[in-house]
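Internal tracking record. Fields below are filled automatically when a chain is submitted to the structure queue. Please do not edit lines marked as system-generated. If the sequence contains nonstandard residues, flag them in the REMARKS field before resubmitting.
Queue: standard
Priority: normal
Entity type: single polypeptide chain
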Amino acid sequence: MIMSTIRFVILGVSLSATAAFAQTFDTRATAAYVFDQTTGTVLLAKNEDIPLPPASMSKLMTVYMAFEAVTDGRLVIDELLPVSAHAAGYAGSSMFLDTTDRVSVEDLLRGVIVLSGNDASAVLAEALSPDGTEAGFARMMTQRAQQMGMMNSSFANSNGWPAAGHRMSMEDLGILADRIISDFPTFYPLFAETEFAFDNRVPSNSRNRNPLLTLGIGADGLKTGHTQEAGYGLVGSAKQGDRRVIFVITGLESQSDRAEEAEKLVNWAFRQFAQKDVARAGTRIAEADVWMGDAPTVGLTVADDLSLLVPILNQGEVNAEVVFAGPITAPITAGQQLGELVVSLDGLPQKRLPLVADADVARGGFSARLRTAAYVLWQKFGPGAEQAAEGA
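SYSTEM-GENERATED OUTPUT FOLLOWS
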């Protein structure tokens, strides 16, 4: 079989402007990752795969695993959990729990999400740990992260308290945010809550630290983080219209720097890119030759409706290649992946999408075999064969 490449220009994506690509965002963050969830497009990546101290942003992993436990019945949302001396002993951001408390899972989740409670994270961790310790849960976190494709993450605790080996990359945090939003849509609104006054214990510590939630720009999550080692960071998400953007930043010098940088990133992601519908599932994009089939060719189509995120200042053309190993041997089943559509656009990473057969092609009878034999003879002895041999 021979790798075949068909190059063409996707039509209908042109925009009337003059520059070749969107202006790159020059972030002050030491590491950043911006991802358009709707189209699966990475808009910005800076030191995105380097494991760094994640501070309280790593609480998202504890929250994700608690959501899983509630969903599969290992935890009940109104179940009351005890508070150990270890959990109550955490300093920093807190629900101000003590060992006389028994707190509902729902309140603990809000305590982690809204108040960034180190103590609340530890209570949940000890409840889910195989050995009842936070350290045991941290080992579970690392294993679960790897199962989710987060290969640059390792955990020493449940809450991001500074510890040797407690690291996450910005890309991994982006993957985690994407999974929280996609896997737990009923729980996700918790991240948009701006206040949680648990037992009215400390009114001064009842506000969500996410600086974007009240700005009217579609922000609805997820988690801030800060330690001296990590600087100020934020895993955020915002939705405007049909588009959702997820972004992660870290290493900012102050709360105000974090707030300004996050707002600028959201505005840049929505204002400098536009979503364009390119092809609907079932639309034939190319044809591939078929070997020993009852039809000489099969159509190639995208498996799902195809939308692309295009810089608004793009001059007009989106270049694409259809790549497959052909001819393709029958039988072929409709929906079977046969190749890839590789889309290239200045200013954005290359995008690869599966291409599938648009129809069944059964294995052919005598006439198909005769046609295949003729094709082989033509390839070997026909005009141009001698010239091809000399050039080999």
